[in-house]
Design goal:
Pfam families: Fic (PF02661). By secondary structure, this protein is mainly α. The protein contains ten helices and no strands. Helix 2 packs across helix 3, helix 2 packs across helix 4 and helix 5 crosses helix 8.
Length: 242
């Protein structure tokens, strides 16, 4: 499953160090698309260009404060993820809570970075997340899985499974989707891959793949979606540095 992407990574690594301004322009484009699509999947109505304008510090008339905060917060969360990668910090619950705290900052400060104390359902999904009293134990088990069984997996599959397991626990009242996609890219970036973008137009495919993983333990569709989107990012890099 991973032969082609690993070949592309080897080719990309052979070109390092990459041109400074090429890297800067790709990073800005990817972070914009990542922010726009991750928010759009969750119902944010800002367009790609409106998202770009908000990131530049301009407000959009007719759009809610929450939609503006979702853009700014996601940018700050990406910056935090990049800092984790730069500092080679080990994965932890503390990191997860910090990422979530940034995602919900100013939107729902009471629950930002705090596990939920109420039962929730995932709209449209067959899978029902665990009750609140089970969350702490399941999040601890997630870290144990990551350090044990997860460490033996191919990095891309490990990143995909981290997302799947986290969403299945659904540990927060709100912001689980954005946080899960930040965690997925955190794991990819820690292993030398660029971030990938799950696009809003693929949200039905994305949700169906997740629900299949949670209800049947078949993670193939989700892993293939991650691989498909990551391939697009790799091709973007390789086409620009030819």
């Amino acid at each position: 499953m991973f032969e082609e992407i690993d070949r592309k990574k080897l080719l990309l690594d052979s070109k390092r160090p990459l041109p400074q301004y090429t890297i800067k322009s790709i990073r800005e484009q990817l972070n914009l698309e990542w922010t726009y699509n991750s928010n759009a999947i969750e119902g944010n109505t800002l367009t790609l260009m409106e998202t770009k304008v908000v990131l530049e510090g301009i407000t959009i008339g007719g759009k809610t404060l929450r939609e503006h905060l979702e853009v700014i917060n996601h940018r700050d969360a990406i910056l935090y993820v990049e800092e984790i990668v730069k500092n080679n910090e080990p994965f932890s619950e503390w990191q997860i809570k910090n990422i979530h705290r940034l995602v919900l900052k100013g939107i729902n400060d009471e629950y930002a970075g705090a596990y939920r104390d109420q039962q929730v359902i995932i709209a449209g999904a067959k899978h029902i997340p665990p009750e609140p009293f089970l969350i702490k134990e399941q999040m601890e088990n997630l870290i144990k899985w990551y350090e044990g069984e997860g460490a033996k997996l191919h990095p891309i599959l490990r990143a995909a499974m981290l997302h799947v397991i986290f969403v299945g626990i659904h540990p927060f009242i709100d912001g689980n989707g954005r946080t899960s996609r930040l965690l997925l890219n955190l794991e990819l970036m820690k292993n030398g891959y660029p971030p990938m973008v799950i696009r809003n137009e693929n949200r039905i495919k994305y949700y169906n793949a997740l629900d299949k993983a949670h209800t049947t333990n078949d993670n193939t569709d989700f892993a293939e979606l991650v691989l498909e989107e990551l391939n697009k990012t790799m091709d973007l890099y390789l086409n620009l540095i030819k």
